Amino acid sequence: MKKFKSGKLILVLMVLLPGFYDSYAQRGRTTVLSPEVLPDNSVIFRLKAPGAKTVEVYGSWPSEFKSKIPMTEKDSSLFEVKIGPLPGNMYEYEFLLNGVNILDPQNKVVTRDGPYIMNRLMVPGGQADVYEVNPVPHGRLTAVWYPSPTIGTERRMMVYTPPGYEKNTQKYPVMYLLHGAGGDEDVWVSRGRANYILDNLIASGKAVPMIVVITNGVPDNAGAPLDRHNVVRKTVDTGGFESMLKGKFEESLIKDIIPYVEQNYRVIADPAHRAITGFSMGGFHTQMITNANPGKFDYIGVMSMGLFNGPNLPDYNKESHIRQLNALKASKPKVYWVAIGTEDFLYGTAVKLRALYDEIGFPYTYRETGGRHDWNDWRLYLSEFTPMLFR
User: Fold this and answer.
1) N or C: which end of the chain has fewer CB within 10 A?
2) pTM of the predicted model as reported, rounded to 2 decimal places
């Protein structure tokens, strides 16, 4: 019998025996479990970091817990910390190793918001039940390229069609869902869980079946980074702020996106079956679009944004704005919803917005949470706004 050297034998086994390499690679290593969710919803984070001076965990948990928490060295290489109990919800986190942000190597689940990639933590119960992949009928999520003459290029958006759409001839209402600065058309899926929120709300009867169009609100970028054509891939992401001020996306949504959707999907094409909402930059876009197009949408949601007059924004003309708002008021939208957290750095803009609306008698519904400018609120707001639609 021909003898094999150990290295050759291992190579043969790697090829012939699926899973052998993984078990061989882990041989002799100490298994590290991270994150570990305990029965009381406390969470233990662990990181093997030989020679590290400092290790911390940074996460989006509620503000009663520090965002950045030092981890304790348990032995010569293992760092650990226990947090909680945490409310049932979805959180994002990462480690800081000697001050450098790194992902948790033991957690393969990550989410992306523009350039920010973090690990996902799902703590069961509460809001997490709305965000989970539950055994309910699922809608279809499709990446769609559409022509945008207004911007001058093909652009990419995500379209959610509700369960059963492909098997019937029914027409549906539409919600246009907008993201914040730095994001793109993937973020409401990756970090926002929009498709699963819709699945779960529709299955429970809390929301009517609808189509959801998730747009890319940065005119300079045709699509998410991995899906851009080489011609536009060289474009430097500015975080969306400069594009936010150009007005091109708002014009494109009216002239390009809505006509494309209404020509290519079975939709009820009237204001009573058309909704729009977004957070931060998307909340600004929502205001600009609806202010300039009274009567286009009967359902309007402004998340984490108020009366904004930031740097480089064209001079604010209150009289012109009030004329727009009075025209919008005359169109009698069924829902105008404003939502923001008291710890949001834009909270003051919402105070100004409400003061103006109260001054002119513009009707709105106000939702205030104790949250910050983050996805804990935006997922929550979507789960609360959607059931208000098309009733």
Assistant:
1) N
2) 0.88
